[in-house]
Amino acid sequence: MTAVTDPSQGGFRIGMLLSDTRYRGATIQTIALIAFLTAGYWLVDNVISNLAALGKDFSFRFMTEPAGYDINQRLIEYTSRSSHATAAVVGILNTLLVAVLGCALATVIGVVAGVLRLSNNWIVAKLMTVYVETVRNIPVLIQILLLAAVFDEFLPHPKQAGTLSLFGLVDTGVVATNRGFYVPGPVFHDGSAWVVGALIVGILLSIGYARHARRVQQDTGEILPVLPVRLGLIVGLPLVVMLVLSAVGAPPITMESPVLKGFNFQGGIYMRNSLVALWLALSIYTGAFIAENVRAGILSVPKGQTEAAYALGLRPRRTMQLVILPQAMRVIIPPLISQYLNLTKNSSLAIAVGYMDATGTLGGITLNQTGKEMETLMLLMAFYLSISLTISMVMNLYNEQVKLVERTSATGFAPSLGHLLNNVTGPWRNLTKGDAQHQPLYGVAGWLNLVVLLYGAIWLALLVYLFLMDTPAQREPYFLWPTSRQIVFLALTASTMSAFLTIVFKHFRAIDFAALTLVLWVAASLLGVDLDGLAADLPDGVVTYGGFAAQVAAIAYLLFGKRPNLTYLNRVKEAG
Amino acid sequence: MKHSLILGAVAAIGLAAGAASANTLEDVKAKGHLQCGVATGVPGFAFTDADGEWQGFDVAVCRAVAAAIFGDPKAVKFTPTTGKTRFTALASGEVDMLARNTTWTFSRDTDLGFDFVGVNYYDGQGFMVRKDLGVTSAKELDGATVCIQTGTTTELNLADFFRTNGMSYEPVPIETNAEARQKYLAGACDVYTTDASGLAATRSTFEDPKAHVILPEIISKEPLGPLVRHGDNEWGDLVRWTLNALIIAEEKGITAANVEEMAKGTNDPEVNRLLGAEGEYGKMIGLGKDWAVNAIKAGGNYGEIFARYIGEETPVGLARGLNAQWTQGGLLYAPPFR
Ligand SMILES: N[C@@H](CCC(=O)N[C@@H](CS)C(=O)NCC(=O)O)C(=O)O
């Protein structure tokens, strides 16, 4: 032992790489790394040589060529003359649509079922047990196909279909056919802008009122009625504007009911059976898993907590709201992340019922018609990967906010611009959840601020710029750019998104992402990315230089903001 | 030492895995059977009979090739492929050839890396609707819901047809013919569109075929034929000339019944060359003297195969039309066998 640990005796020999505990770890890691790189190299080399053997080249040029096929559900403008890239975006948006709808409905189902499973009512509790145990144990593909088959076979042909009514009394205006569901939809006329404006004002006022109510409660303990007032502001205000406008002239918003024209119904909102079947099946399936997470979360809060709350005089609803749920959330959130991820990935089964998601367009028809298996599948994997990473980033940031912060919790030892500049900006103290200063701005209300809006806007503009590719008159399509420009632009998009999300969740890292975004902004501009194209209507230079200035201002504010920097980063300047 | 060993091993695996075999005939002979990609199920063209045996107009091409190689039309295994999986199956070497109503197009022949060896059915894309819709022309289909198989030329033609005629439609993408049949019959789509032969074949399985009409418009050229991977020309030649042998056999009046007899020698030197009574033609494609005899014996000549599976006497009920011999005013015209 001593011989091994004493380096001065006999100097360094090759054998020591393995026999000496000081070097062994490094040696093994180096070997592992070499093996990994070799395997990786071999895989890539194998692919390249096999592609060459098949006479195929590796290139993404085909993405800019006309797709040639039609897609039934398109959330953006698309015809069969649009490019494969646009077809991919149509598919991506369809994936996102069903994922968002699915996650929302699955959460509702899961929470209801999870709570009811703990109900004191024996029948309700058992029914929920049956739901969870049955649905969880049947493959989701079969459930999707089953629902689709039911819609196909049992719903009437458009020629025979009429509107559904509730108990034969109220006409809902909804038409269910074996092609899909038609729901009456709003039609916006002149003056509808006023109604939309009233809605926005209502939302802003309701946020203001909520802040006010919370402050009053903090200061005086008096509990103001929040829900009715907020509802009144958000729903009531636009309603009043609408009624006034209708009384004066034509109603600014009317409902359009679907009517049978030719082969199909026209008008209103059309939800294809493929979408509804996929959506319901994914939600019901994932809901069963979420129900179990919710149940576990609620059970994880000791009964003593409820009893203590009651002893303090809290009523049951408030006990649930203020004591049980916040603690249960800490247990529920992490597994909920993986359920959302599962749902999103399971949505790739869409093609089984003919729903044109990203797998159906990019990984389906485009792959098949162009024969570019490698390229399309790589793009598809990149898409699912970035969606999954984004979801898990959002959920982790949220989790970071709600998790218990203990005295010993280390917050950010990793190097950060914020820490580096501590000498300049003065030391900061991170707020923990219990701090009174933290309270007024906790929650959705705290999200609305200029910096959030800035990064949100840039991110949105970058996404639109990246994906809106059928504008060759305005610029070269992304897939024809030089590689360096492509990479920097992608990195810029990712970094802007990270800055946006970390700021929304008031994470300390926001400063670093903001700085990175600024650097990439400059790099992209130097590499010839037409940043002014982000908002082509504005005069030249406004976006490039204005964006730069706004980002510098945002970073400066994040670092040097005078007042307690609550809005952004959950931290206050330490006194003295 | 160790490192070079590992590297050497990795390199060896790489070579082994990377080497895609270029001699399909050798591989097929070594396997002892032909692996043939066919449709998942199109009545008349590729279907399994009551005994679970694959039968059909396209399947017969596979059987003829197997018979030419092994002298046994049963020495073939079938891989059912959808419009979407067929090309991957062929490109990856999962199947040795495809005989599956596949349209010969430029990009499939070049960019996708395949070789079409000929045409066994000249077709075009058509539309089928219920009679009671009262539609008499494809130009009246504005706003209709249309079932199409994805990954086909059909969906591209369809998009062009509706666009150039200024009409809109609602595509319902599906994977297999069976699924399309179910959707169409359930009324989930107003129209089913695919190759006209496929429409006739599908309609023949309906309970009441008369309640459905195939509209007069044929909107595309769909020359359907067998194909192989690009790059193995010997294998391509073999499949091409097996198909040609069946066509020449019809032209020359060689049938399954009389082929043995004619192989003994006739007055027609072309027949003698084809059937091995004269010359060493089998050897030129790596096969025995009696390869064509075996291929023809397997299911008869082109005309016999056509009549048995999809001809006017069958439920599918297709007329020869374009698929008659050139001597009968059709397009079937095999190059001379010499
Ligand atoms: N000829 C077209 C379409 C061929 C096609 O897929 N036809 C359908 C309908 S007849 C079919 O063969 N389906 C077979 C199956 O579903 O397995 C092409 O090559 O793209």
Question: Can you walk me through this structure?
Answer:
The complex is a heterodimer of chains A (576) and B (338). In chain A, β2 (170-177) and β3 form a beta hairpin. Chain A is 61% helix and 7% strand. Chain A has 20 helices and 10 strands. Chain B has 2 domains: 24-122 and 224-328, Periplasmic binding protein-like II (D-Maltodextrin-Binding Protein, domain 2); 125-220, 3-Layer(aba) Sandwich (D-Maltodextrin-Binding Protein, domain 2), CATH 3.40.190. In chain B, 38% of the residues lie in helices and 17% in strands. In chain B, the strands form 5 sheets. Chain B has a 5-stranded mixed sheet with strand order 10-9-11-8-12, with helices on both faces. Chain B has a 3-stranded parallel sheet with strand order 4-1-5. Chain B is globular. Chain B starts with a helix and ends in a 29-residue tail after the last helix. Chains A and B meet through α3 and α12 of A and α1, α4, α6 and β10 of B.
Radius of gyration of chain B: 22 Å
Report the structural category of chain A: alpha+beta
Tally of helical runs of chain B? 14
Order of helices and strands of chain A: HHHHHHEEEEHHEEEEHHHHHHHEHHHHHE
Q: What percentage of amino acids of chain B are in beta strands?
A: 15-25%
Low-confidence stretches of chain A: 1-7, 563-568
What percent of residues of chain B adopt helix (DSSP H or I)? Answer: 25-40%
Strand order of the largest sheet of chain A: 1-2-3-8
Globally, the shape of chain A reads: globular
Architecture of the largest domain in chain B in CATH? Answer: 3-Layer(aba) Sandwich
Mean pLDDT of chain B: 90
Structural class of chain B: alpha/beta
